[in-house]
Every structure is written in C-alpha cells, then in structure tokens.
Amino acid sequence: MEKTSKITKEMTINEAVQKHPKTALVFMDYGLHCVGCPMAPSETLEEAAKGHELDLDKLLADLNKAAEQ
C-alpha cells in the first residue's frame, strides 16, 4: 500500500486538494474559500497562510491529519 505523501508549505492549494480531497474541508474551516479561486493553482500553502495571517504549522498539521483519514 502506498504511503500518503506529506503536505508541505511548498505545495499549491490545488495540488493539496487534488492529492487529498478531504483537505478541502480544512481549507473551508480556516476561511480559505480559495479552493476554487483563480489563485489556487499558483498560490502555495505558505503564501496563503501569510496572506490570511494564519499559523502555517497548525494549518499544515490539520491538512496532513485530514489527508491521512
């Protein structure tokens, strides 16, 4: 069985959601409704966290937790 790839700050929002669809709910919980916005294909998770003044480490932890489910 293939091990789940870890979500990193360098990944784009689209990449995270495409690889791990359950992460869409985490983005929504954080108020990041950019899952379908024009920035999603090019904005990294680090850029999104900075732009929305979010704790990047917590966001990544929550995204990875969702990806493992």
Defining key terms:
single chain, mainly alpha, 69 residues, 49% helix, SP0561-like, globular, 0% strand
Report a brief summary of the structure.
By secondary structure, this protein is mainly alpha-helical. It is 49% helix and 0% strand.
SSE layout and pairings?
Blueprint: H1 13-19, H2 23-29, H3 45-51, H4 56-68
Explain this structure:
This protein is mainly α. It has a single domain (13-68), classed as SP0561-like. Helices cover 49% and strands 0% of the residues. The chain has helices at residues 13-19, 23-29, 45-51, 56-68. The two termini are 15 Å apart.
Shape, principal axes of CA atoms: globular
User: Per CATH, what is the topology?
Assistant: SP0561-like
Number of domains: 1
Radius of gyration: 11 Å
Distance between the termini: 15 Å
So how many helices? Answer: 4
Write out the CATH superfamily name.
Answer: SP0561-like
Q: Residue share in helices?
A: 40-55%
Strand content: under 5%
- CATH top level assignment: Mainly Alpha
Say how many strands there are. Answer: 0
Unreliable residue runs:
none
Topology pattern, helix = H, strand = E: HHHH
Mean pLDDT: 87
Structural class: mainly alpha
Q: What composes the largest sheet?
A: none
- CATH architectural type: Orthogonal Bundle
